[in-house]
Every structure is written in C-alpha cells, then in structure tokens.
Write a structure and sequence with these properties.
This protein has six helices and eleven strands. With 169 residues, it is of the alpha/beta class. The protein has a seven-stranded mixed β-sheet with strand order 5-2-1-6-7-11-10, sandwiched between helices. Strands 3-4 form a two-stranded antiparallel sheet. A two-stranded parallel sheet has the order 8-9. The longest helix has 13 residues. The chain starts with a strand and ends with a helix. The model has no long low-confidence stretch (mean pLDDT 97). Keywords: Glutamine amidotransferase. It comes from Anaerococcus martiniensis. Pfam families: DJ-1_PfpI. This is Type 1 glutamine amidotransferase domain-containing protein.
C-alpha cells in the first residue's frame, strides 16, 4: 500500500486538510506529519482539531510515496521548520509526488524547488512563487513534473483527483 504524508500545523484551512485526508485514506496509508509528533493542531476556523502521527524530524522521503501540503495559514509555520522544509526537499530530490494548495506553495518556495516550474497558488502569494523562479499561472490545478499545485478550496476536487492519478502512474 502506498504511503502519503500530509503536513499539518495550526491554522490549516480545514477543507484543504480534511478533504484530501479522507479521500486518500480510501486507497493509501496516510500519515499526518507535524513539527511535533502526537500533537493536536487546530484549524484556521478554530474548532476542528487533528493530531499528528509523527514529527517532521522523523519523516524520511524513503518512507513515503507522496506528500500533500494544505493551505490556510499553517504553511507559514511549516516553512519555519527546518525539518519540515528538508523533508519536502528530500521528497522532491527523490522524485516523489508533491501536492500543495493555496498557501501550501510557500513551503515549496522555502525548499527552493520552484525554479522553472509552472505552478499556481492563492493569488496573494503569487509574487512569492514568481520570485522563487516559478512560472505562476492562474489555473485550477497545475502539474509540472512531480509538483501538483492548486489555488483554493474550490479547486480541491480537481486537485485531489489529479494528485491520485499522478500517484498511480
């Protein structure tokens, strides 16, 4: 069974974590990876809580087939964690599938893996994505190599469907 890491931090956009989490659990082993293991993280709206399974310091690219990065304000904390950023960088170097939605590409910016990549994000961070060397486009879901990006929660059906298709290749 393929194994997918979903990154988690406080202030995640609930639909962008919960929708892929449950969809991916239908076919894959899903592990929530936070800065700390066995820690409860609270969504952006303040009511929904989910607990990390492992710490990013314990996440190894060799243990996973893909990583999914939800948005909201959680990617700001994710990109401040050297272990989280290094995990995403290792996943990219290993050619593993990387999904990021909304503010999730901030982690890709910090991992310095967007040079010459066609990508999208929520419009408010498009300048950051462009400054990281990406060709930013305003499209529902963008696939460039192993990186799959999307803009907002309304793009989740197309983004998660594309993520699964890419993971099955």
């Amino acid at each position: 069974m393929k194994k997918v890491a979903i990154l988690i931090e406080n202030k995640y956009e609930e639909p962008e974590l919960i929708y892929p989490y449950w969809r991916l659990k239908e076919d894959y082993e899903v592990i929530l990876v936070g800065t700390e293991a066995d820690t409860e993280y609270v969504g952006k709206a303040g009511g929904y809580k989910m607990k990390s399974d492992i710490a990013s310091s314990d996440a190894k690219a060799s243990d996973f087939d893909a990583v999914y990065i939800p948005g909201g304000f959680s990617p700001d904390a994710m990109r401040q964690s050297e272990d989280t950023v290094n995990f995403v960088k290792e996943m990219h170097e290993a050619g593993k599938i990387i999904g990021a939605i909304c503010h999730g590409p901030w982690v890709l910016v910090e991992a310095d893996i967007l040079k010459d990549v066609k990508a999208t994000s929520v419009k408010t961070i498009s300048t950051d994505v462009k400054n990281a060397g990406a060709n930013w486009v305003d499209e529902e879901t963008v696939v460039d190599g192993n990186i799959i990006t999307a803009r907002t929660p309304k793009d989740l059906p197309a983004h998660v469907t594309t993520f699964v298709k890419e993971l099955e290749k």
